[in-house]
Automatic annotation (TrEMBL):
InterPro entries according to UniProt: Rex_DNA-bd_C_dom, Tscrpt_rep_Rex, WH-like_DNA-bd_sf, WH_DNA-bd_sf
UniProt xrefs under Gene3D superfamilies: Winged helix-like DNA-binding domain superfamily/Winged helix DNA-binding domain
Residues annotated as domain Rex DNA-binding C-terminal: 3-46
Domain of life: Bacteria
One of the GO biological process terms: response to redox state
Full protein name: Redox-sensing transcriptional repressor Rex
Pfam family, one: Put_DNA-bind_N
Amino acid sequence: MFPKATLERLKLYHRLLSEEEKEYISSEEIGERLGILPEQVRKDLSYL
């Protein structure tokens, strides 16, 4: 089970990635675009 905060951020990541036409994107870029630390992005994605 995902922590609720992680689930909410995963929704944000999904929305951002759905809008992008890039093949690759870094956790740094995701974090910068969403105002989230890249370390948190990587930790959240590790649940997948």
